[in-house]
């Protein structure tokens, strides 16, 4: 049962962030970037589908039930994934912190004792390497750009910073899975993550936030007020017309 | 972003192809971003294994008005074409 909930947690992370990125479709600053954000959203949606598919094989529900027929307290994504990002700098500040984490996490998950998870990790790792390239390019460009872009990127980092610590917590249900090699230990990834992020942030002439606050709760279904609105939009159609095909 | 970003031409080498082929253009802040957008726009469906991007302004192109002087003189020199020659007896390839 706990491998199932761990897989659903990873799937929820990917689905929710994929949806957040898809909100930029048609709104990015220019056409090329619009396509880039939509492509990353599709990478994440693809990852979510693979993980929900695996969850179903482990005895869970099907992907549509997971995505469309659960309410916010049933979602177990970490909070950093669900934060709204109506400012381009916020979108990429959050994206960078997650992309660097994903590169480390999926690299480690490739060694999972669970063959399906290891396979999904291999695909996700390659995507994450590319995502880091793109988000770090924006961090650099906005941080080392104009006074305004610098100020907004610094503010964006401050705004999302307190949500990153949750990435490195192992839920209590996962402890035995970490012990038997099904999942990587999130806590040990923190040092490499902090070093990489510090290097990128400083190269972008920005300052690593002081980090004296943190918010957590996503894995146990305790969410920010923003997730409900996200789900309302994402789930509207299948909930209004149950069973509809489109 | 008051000034338009520089225009880049994109060339893709497909899996089986030997040479890079021009596939289109895009706008980007610089060559690094142009390469990323080229990947996003032109290679998402396994179109290629190698990419070139080059600033459109760096391409030296022949001019329309020079076309007559440049290309027409080749018209009356059919001996430059392999098809001008009769294949000698016994020769399979020329």
Features:
heterodimer, A: 246 residues, Ferritin, 64% helix, globular, B: 94 residues, alpha+beta, Ubiquitin-like (UB roll), three-stranded antiparallel beta sheet, 3 strands
Characterise this structure.
- The complex is a heterodimer of chains A (about 250) and B (about 90).
- Chain A has about 250 residues and is mainly alpha-helical.
- Chain A has one domain: Ferritin (Up-down Bundle), CATH 1.20.1260.10.
- Helix content of chain A is about 65%, strand content about 0%.
- Chain A contains ten helices and no strands.
- Chain A has helices at about 1-20, 30-55, 65-70, 80, 90-110, 115-145, 145-160, 175-180, 190-205, 225-240.
- Chain A starts with a helix and ends in a 6-residue tail after the last helix.
- Chain B is an alpha+beta fold.
- Chain B has a domain at about 1-60: Ubiquitin-like (UB roll) (Roll).
- In chain B, about 20% of the residues lie in helices and about 20% in strands.
- Chain B has helices at about 30-40, 65-70, and strands spanning about 5-15, 20-25, 50-55.
- Chain B has a three-stranded antiparallel sheet with strand order 2-1-3, with helices on one face.
- The longest helix of chain B is centred in the middle third of the chain and has 12 residues, at about 30-40.
- Chain B is flat, with a radius of gyration of 20 Å.
- The termini of chain B are far apart.
- The model of chain B has no long low-confidence stretch (mean pLDDT about 85).
- Chains A and B meet through helix 2 and helix 6 of A and helix 1 of B.
Count interface residues per chain for the largest interface.
Answer: A-B, 13 and 14 residues
Report the radius of gyration of chain A as a whole number of Å.
Answer: 17 Å
Helix-strand pattern of chain A: HHHHHHHHHH
Structural shape of chain A: globular
Count of discrete alpha- or pi-helical segments spanning 4 or more residues of chain B: 2
- Physical arrangement of strands within the biggest beta sheet of chain B: 2-1-3
Question: How much β-strand is present in the residues of chain A?
Answer: under 5%
- The rough form of chain B would be described as flat
| Structure classification of chain B | alpha+beta
CATH architecture of chain A: Up-down Bundle
- Radius of gyration from the alpha-carbon trace of chain B, in angstroms: 20 Å
Q: How would you state the average pLDDT of chain A, rounded?
A: 96
- CATH top level assignment of the domain at 1-59 in chain B: Alpha Beta
Name of the CATH superfamily of the domain at 1-59 in chain B: Phenylacetic acid degradation B
Helicity of chain B, as a percent range: 10-25%
CATH architecture of the domain at 1-59 in chain B: Roll
* Gap from first CA to last CA of chain A: 33 Å
Main sheet summary of chain B: 3 strands, antiparallel
Indicate the proportion of strand residues of chain B.
15-25%
User: Low-confidence parts of chain A, pLDDT < 50 over ≥5 residues?
Assistant: none
